[in-house]
Amino acid sequence: MSIRSPMSREERLDAVFHALADTTRRRIVRRLAKGPTSVGEIAAPFSMSLAAVSKHLDVLEDAGVVVRERDGRFQRCRLAPRALDEASVFVDRYRSFWDDNLDALAEYLER
Q1: Which class in CATH covers the domain with range 9-110?
Q2: Is 75:60 a contact under the CB 8 Å cutoff?
Q3: 16: number of Cβ within 10 Å
């Protein structure tokens, strides 16, 4: 068993954006936003193997976006929204920059 050193803030942010860069993983996050569910239920709408879905869940879990818990033979997954908070803060920081620039462009075009 390897012991991982804690991720820096930047590494956590990189992991979250990497995890969310894939359509399948974003669909999994949308599903888990409705509430916890089993891996089998997550896999149902996808035309891929359970093992492939599990690999996507590994990426989301490594990024801290998803938590998997064992319940006997079953694994239940739930969303861990705190990991998404840092990504949201990052995006929000630049939202005002783009809003200001788009407002200035609209004003320029109106003249």
Answers
A1: mainly alpha
A2: no
A3: 22
Q: For residue 98, give both structure tokens.
A: 């783009």
| Number of helices (H), then strands (E), in the chain | 5, 3
Which ranges of 21-81 would DSSP assign to H, the alpha helix? Answer: 23-32, 39-43, 50-62
pLDDT, one tens digit per residue, over 30-65 is 999 999 999 999 999 999 999 999 999 999 999 999
- Whole-angstrom distance, CA of residue 50 vs CA of residue 28: 13
The Cβ-side half-sphere exposure at 30, using a 13 Å CA radius, reads 7
Q: Which amino acid is at 95?
A: R
Task: Say whether pTM exceeds 0.85.
Answer: no
